[in-house]
């Protein structure tokens, strides 16, 4: 089931979540962003795993929820000297694409000291990313943040692990746990969206965390 949303003091927050440093890759702003957390620690080709990976994340998966291309299985495809993760959401229904942070389902990561993550991606429409903890993996009632459309252009954006930047959606349900607790047992980042969309991911770099290659 897809993601969830959050409200403050009972008021649903559906407004756009502010995102730092959204800019085309070729713009000067993207170069200035290198000073932010994790930007100086981007994995290069020699740091990748021996099997297909992006920033050592090997498990980018279509979950089979919603009509997607591919419908299930890995999203990783060769791109230049490395790999990209690509998926198309079709129809007006909820779609789910999963990234296992420890490269296996039963693994989890403590991200409580992480500032956030860098995402290099393109998207035709807005969508969301959920932070799913090991103890509350299933269901849509998860903390999430909005990921803006890029109009099909590749951009690099930093998304902070700041509770004020994460919310939930009434349609998916209110989480019965805190965002802070989810950070301590993060199993996956789950991308969800309810509209047709073409997604292309080139980087998912988490500040202070290096996934173990399997």
Would you write up a description of this structure?
- By secondary structure, the protein is mainly beta.
- The chain has a domain at 59-206: Galactose-binding lectin (Jelly Rolls, Sandwich).
- It has two helices and 16 strands.
- It has helices at residues 28-32, 179-184; strands at 5-8, 11-12, 20-24, 60-62, 67-69, 73-74, 76-79, 82-90, 95-100, 116-123, 127-133, 143-147, 155-160, 168-169, 186-193, 197-206.
- Strand 1 (5-8) and strand 2 (11-12) form a beta hairpin.
Topology, element by element:
Layout: E1 5-8, E2 11-12, E3 20-24, H1 28-32, E4 60-62, E5 67-69, E6 73-74, E7 76-79, E8 82-90, E9 95-100, E10 116-123, E11 127-133, E12 143-147, E13 155-160, E14 168-169, H2 179-184, E15 186-193, E16 197-206
Antiparallel strand pairs: 1-2, 1-14, 3-13, 4-6, 4-9, 5-8, 7-8, 8-16, 9-15, 10-13, 10-16, 11-12, 11-15
Keywords: Signal
Protein name: DUF1349 domain-containing protein
Signal peptide: 1-29
A few lines on this structure:
This protein has a domain at 59-206: Jelly Rolls (Sandwich). Helices cover 5% and strands 39% of the residues.
Relevant terms:
mainly beta; Jelly Rolls; 2 helices
Taking the sheet with the most strands, its summary is: 7 strands, antiparallel
Q: What's the CATH H-level homologous superfamily of the domain at 59-206?
A: Galactose-binding lectin
State the order of secondary-structure elements, H for helix, E for strand: EEEHEEEEEEEEEEEHEE
Number of strands: 16
SS class: mainly beta
What share of residues is helical? under 10%
Overall CATH class of the domain at 59-206 = Mainly Beta
Backbone CA Rg: 16 Å
As residue ranges, the low-confidence spans are: 2-46
Tell me the CATH architecture of the domain at 59-206. Answer: Sandwich
Could you report the average pLDDT, rounded to the nearest whole number? Answer: 85
| CA(first)-CA(last) distance | 27 Å
| Shape category | globular
């Amino acid at each position: 089931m897809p993601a969830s949303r959050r409200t403050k003091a009972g008021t649903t927050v559906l407004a756009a979540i502010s995102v730092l440093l959204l800019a085309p890759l070729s713009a000067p702003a993207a170069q200035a962003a290198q000073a932010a957390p994790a930007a100086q620690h981007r994995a290069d080709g020699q740091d990748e795993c021996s099997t297909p990976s992006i920033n050592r994340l090997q498990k980018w998966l279509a979950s089979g929820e919603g009509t997607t291309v591919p419908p299930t299985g890995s999203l990783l495809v060769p791109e230049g000297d490395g790999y990209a993760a690509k998926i198309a959401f079709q129809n007006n229904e909820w779609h789910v694409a999963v990234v296992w942070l420890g490269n296996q389902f039963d693994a989890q990561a403590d991200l409580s000291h992480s500032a956030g993550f860098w995402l290099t991606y393109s998207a035709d429409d807005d969508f969301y990313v959920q932070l799913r903890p090991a103890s509350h993996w299933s269901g849509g009632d998860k903390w999430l943040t909005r990921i803006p459309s890029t109009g099909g252009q590749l951009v690099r954006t930093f998304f902070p692990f700041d509770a004020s930047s994460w919310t939930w959606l009434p349609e998916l349900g209110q989480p019965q746990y805190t965002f802070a607790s989810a950070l301590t047992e993060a199993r996956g980042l789950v991308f969800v969206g309810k509209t047709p969309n073409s997604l292309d991911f080139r980087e998912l770099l988490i500040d202070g965390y290096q996934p173990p290659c399997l």
